[in-house]
Recover the amino acids of this structure.
């Protein structure tokens, strides 16, 4: 199995994957609302609270994949009664219990329906105006994932400083084709990893970053299930999908099952990959991600060799793999030093360092 998150979970979690999913992942929206109510009982007196709780419980089978619920469920944890009423009202709308109210959106921001309807809505004055073309038709390998092409300010409510949505020249069909080709590369590498990404990604939103930047991001547990990726070639998009899949799965796992001696997020090291100061926690993610990315590229280089259809893509795979391989020993040393006095976290880091790449024939 090449899904390194699943392998790490199996080695270190106190849960079985099935128990973890049924007891924590699927009911997470309900748990978040109940936790907020236990901390601030006045929330239960908000208009619509019981209706929202019942709807979340009934919606559990699919609700955990809906990223649009979580900003409201996370905000309600820290706000007062007035804020709680606002978030309960928003959740009623998200759950289809009420119609969207334009004045609850900032001017120029969007209402993104879930499930997708083929249209997004932008607030203009006191109205919501339909904006066509932002939602792409589903692709075969991501049948339940909403795909978005870049649209200015489309995610300005949840990622105002990260999301870049300037218009791009690529047609919707070409964007979909690149996404499908990216998932095919992942499926060839590891069908289990491809299936897990397809199952867990609720939104794949492309951004207008320059392709050579190969930028991607996700929003931890605030907007889980959403991946934002620049529009590079299929291999770049595939790397971004794998990268953000690992981030999102580990952050959620560590909500309930983090190593007891994990360094606090304020404890940092310098990333040998980017040269930026990052938390030790994030760099443990990075170790998992970069070991997998190197294995992903090596698999395709070994499997296809000179037969890769795009020579430039092959050259970029080689360059990218070499860059990460060159930096991995520095990352290993930095992390080993940072967790040397933390035996549980040290064991996890050592597991990621010692796990041998599988041969190209292994899936």
């Amino acid at each position: 199995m090449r899904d390194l998150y699943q392998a790490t979970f199996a080695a270190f979690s106190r849960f079985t994957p099935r128990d973890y999913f049924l007891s924590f992942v699927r009911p997470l929206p309900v748990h978040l609302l109940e936790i907020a109510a236990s901390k601030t009982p006045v929330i239960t007196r908000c208009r619509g609270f019981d209706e929202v709780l019942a709807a979340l419980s009934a919606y559990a089978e699919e609700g955990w994949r809906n990223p649009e619920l979580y900003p409201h469920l996370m905000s309600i944890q820290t706000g007062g009664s007035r804020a709680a009423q606002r978030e309960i009202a928003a959740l009623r709308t998200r759950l289809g219990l009420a119609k969207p109210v334009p004045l609850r959106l900032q001017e120029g921001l969007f209402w993104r329906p879930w499930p997708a309807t083929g249209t997004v809505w932008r607030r203009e004055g006191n109205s919501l105006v339909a904006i066509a073309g932002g939602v792409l038709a589903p692709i075969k390998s991501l049948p339940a994932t909403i795909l978005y092409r870049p649209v200015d300010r489309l995610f300005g409510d949840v990622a105002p400083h990260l999301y870049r949505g300037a218009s791009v020249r690529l047609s919707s069909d070409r964007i979909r084709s690149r996404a499908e080709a990216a998932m095919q590369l992942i499926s060839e590498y590891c069908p289990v990893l491809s299936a897990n990404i397809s199952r867990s990604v609720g939104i794949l939103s492309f951004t207008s970053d320059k392709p050579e930047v190969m930028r991607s991001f996700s929003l931890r547990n605030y907007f889980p299930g959403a991946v934002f990726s620049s529009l590079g070639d299929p291999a770049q998009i595939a790397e971004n999908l794998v990268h953000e899949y690992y981030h999102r799965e580990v952050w959620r796992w560590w909500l309930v099952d983090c190593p007891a001696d994990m360094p606090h997020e304020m404890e940092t090291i310098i990333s040998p990959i980017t040269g930026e100061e990052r938390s030790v926690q994030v760099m443990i993610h990075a170790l998992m991600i970069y070991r997998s990315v190197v294995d992903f590229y090596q698999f395709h280089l070994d499997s296809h060799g000179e037969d890769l259809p795009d020579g430039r893509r092959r050259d970029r795979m080689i360059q990218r793999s070499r860059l990460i391989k060159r930096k991995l020993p520095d990352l290993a040393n930095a992390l080993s030093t940072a967790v040397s006095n933390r035996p549980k976290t040290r064991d996890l880091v050592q597991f990621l360092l010692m796990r041998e790449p599988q041969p190209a024939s292994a899936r």
